[in-house]
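Records of this kind hold a single protein each, on a pair of labelled lines. With that in mind, the following record should read easily:
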Amino acid sequence: MGLKVDDSDVDPKPAGELALQTLAMPKDTNANGDIFGGWLVSQMDLAAGIATKKVTRGRSATVAIKNVAFLAPVSVGSIISCYAEIVEIGRSSMHINIEVWIANSLTQHGQRKVAEGLFVFVAIDDLGRTRRIDVNGRREGPA
């Protein structure tokens, strides 16, 4: 995960798969009128959680959020697209890179990356205990 903007790529593309898409609303603004960073992180966390479902086939929980970078302000009315890329799967945990891209809600053109971060999730059982992730598709018990 690179935390820099690279102007050399004339047509940048999101990394990963689209996991969540929503609209930035006036209620989500900070005192400056831009979208509140905490709201954006919550959308990123939701996207990471959705991405883990395909692998864990059950419950999972956020255990860490690392290296979140806000690259540009987000305006009300922007279409927020969160892309998820699973970059590591351990015995019971997963690292998911999330990129947030925006597009103007009227034109849906000019998509650009505005935030990124690394989310760490752990698979849990029905009692909230850590459980093993089976990459072969079976849900397993405690780790």
